[in-house]
Amino acid sequence: MSGGASLGLRSSGSYGSLQQSNGQSPPLAARKPGKMSLGGGGVGGRGGERLLFARICKLTSRRRRMLLLLLVAAAVVFCFLFSSLVSKDEDAPPGIDTMLGFSDHVRSFVNPVWTSSGRPIIQGGSLGGNGLNTASQTEKHSGSSHEKLRGLLRSFPPAVDLQHHPCENFSFSPPPIDKKRTGPRPCPVCYVPVEQALALMPDTPSASPVLRSLNYLSEDNLISKESNSGSLFGGYPSLEERDKYYNIKDSMTVHCGFVRGKIPGVNTGFDIDEADLFDMWQCQGIVVASAIFGNYDIMQQPEKISTFSKDTVCFFMFLDEETEAAIKNTTAIDNIKRIGLWRVVVVHNLPYSDARRNGKVPKLLLHRLFPNVQYSVWIDGKLKLVRDPYQLLERFLWRKNVTFAISRHYRRFDVFEEAEANKVGGKYDNASIDYQIEFYKREGLTHYSSSKLPITSDVPEGCVIIREHIPITNLFTCLWFNEVDRFTSRDQLSFSTVRDKIRTRVNWTADMFLDCERRDFVVQAYHRELWEQILRSPPPVRLQPRKMLPDNTAKEPGKGPATKRLPAKRTRDRKSGSKRAHRSRVNGEKEFIQL
């Protein structure tokens, strides 16, 4: 190459360095080398690229070139979004945990059963380990895992930081005066919003005084050794065993229903289908439960429940076959066994002939039916829940630092008075009520008085129970159920005996809140039989009240009231005429009454 400075040849070392040729110096400003083509290197490669690009530009118009560039950009964006969605699905739970902003115990509480892979697990024991087939159930639940997690993210309330409790300045006030309602009425109650209730949730489960481990007795060959020792379902505990159970130790094994098997609901009496048991064992965190047996009540749907609670709280309704058949005549049960919010569970092989006594099984033994639940809210079948479960737990458990809450009776505080009221109302046969009260009197039951303070009552209104599932509360409801199994089904009569016996051994008691506070979060309906009777009966006839005689009534006997002669009606004054006509009718009625 002649003339001028040579551009030089590309060395095998640095990409941008130039190799000197013939001892001549490189030019002051060398041109930046272009990219190498796939077909070859050097100048020839670059020329091929330019030629190809020129031909494309020549064959296509400017509009087509822009369209081609847009298609390429869209493909790049699509690939980027697809890869981000895949990675987001794989890391869904950590993403949710990061975005929620709540502490770890809240996140693990509301969503404990879903792993990072989106597959459900069972903690605290496995149904499969006890001989039940759960593979198909697990596969069915895993298909909707991601949808549940996304729904949880949408409904999770924003995190809050509370410096002071919102209700610290709230003062109790009695129910407002209502001339139309003279009976028991709701009173104002201060609740906090759901997101604040979550922020006030305790970090750890409450400590159980003395008792740390509670186990339940199971036997195959049961023989009743005493009269009035209960039922086969309860296991016939003897009086000696009954007394021993109040000697509370670190570890205990007690009678607590379902004695004929190791898994409650499997060939124990009060039998439950396998699919229902699986869902019950899957429930963790909070359960709201109720029951209707003997078609005794009309199912009530909860109201004012937050979306977050609908996603994280279990709502279970227990029915017998009679009630299920009656409900199917008017209401459809969907393919996942739900009626509204309620997950319906049909119970077979009921242990008692009395529907009310059967209802005491889920009411007092929820910790056996839901072994993985931490909190429960029980409401009788005649009640409608109208407050969010998280608000109830914060108001009646967490705020007071208690583990068991029940409302006291609105009128009666004494067990002896309650027993007499049960006999008058025909709630149970009088002989059985008298036998139970006499038994408790021999054990030391006394009338309620101010000497029992701070205990405010011996008689609960047992239609609502709010509790934390820890060993001591589980023991309390087990022993309470044993009393209901041994004596009458009227649990109000045995409540104070069990409470006081445990209270003398350990530092624990059941908290009793006002009945008017209970009436604020549940609405009571009529029992089915009474409601149908009301619908069949004709509307009441309202009688006109007797008119009082006017002050100008004649004092002498035999004389009627002095009637005032009205002037003639004036056609030009319609208003005054209408008033006079009304007064004339009134006077006529008075005269008729006097005669």
Q: Can you walk through the features of this model?
A:
It is built from 21 helices and 15 strands. It is of the alpha/beta class and 595 residues long. Strands 5, 6, 7, 8, 9, 10, 12, 13 and 14 form a nine-stranded mixed β-sheet that branches. A two-stranded antiparallel ribbon has the order 1-2. Strands 3-4 form a two-stranded parallel sheet. Helix 8 (239-244) links the parallel strand 3 and strand 4. Helix 3 runs parallel beside helix 6 and helix 12 (355-364) runs antiparallel to helix 17 (471-486). The chain starts with 8 loop residues before the first strand and ends with a helix. The relative contact order is 0.09. Residues 1-44, 88-101, 112-126, 134-146, 545-564 and 569-595 have low confidence and may be disordered.
Task: Give a brief description.
The chain has helices spanning 42-59, 62-90, 92-100, 104-110, 135-142, 145-155, 194-199, 239-244, 274-282, 307-312, 321-328, 355-364, 366-369, 389-398, 415-424, 430-443, 471-486, 491-503, 515-521, 528-536, 574-594, and strands at 9-10, 18-19, 213-216, 251-254, 271-272, 285-292, 313-320, 338-339, 342-348, 373-379, 383-385, 404-408, 460-468, 511-513, 522-524. With 595 residues, it is an alpha/beta fold. Helix 17 (471-486) crosses helix 18 (491-503).
Give me the secondary-structure topology:
Elements: E1 9-10, E2 18-19, H1 42-59, H2 62-90, H3 92-100, H4 104-110, H5 135-142, H6 145-155, H7 194-199, E3 213-216, H8 239-244, E4 251-254, E5 271-272, H9 274-282, E6 285-292, H10 307-312, E7 313-320, H11 321-328, E8 338-339, E9 342-348, H12 355-364, H13 366-369, E10 373-379, E11 383-385, H14 389-398, E12 404-408, H15 415-424, H16 430-443, E13 460-468, H17 471-486, H18 491-503, E14 511-513, H19 515-521, E15 522-524, H20 528-536, H21 574-594
Parallel strand pairs: 3-4, 6-7, 6-10, 7-9, 12-14
Antiparallel strand pairs: 1-2, 5-9, 8-9, 10-13, 11-15, 12-13
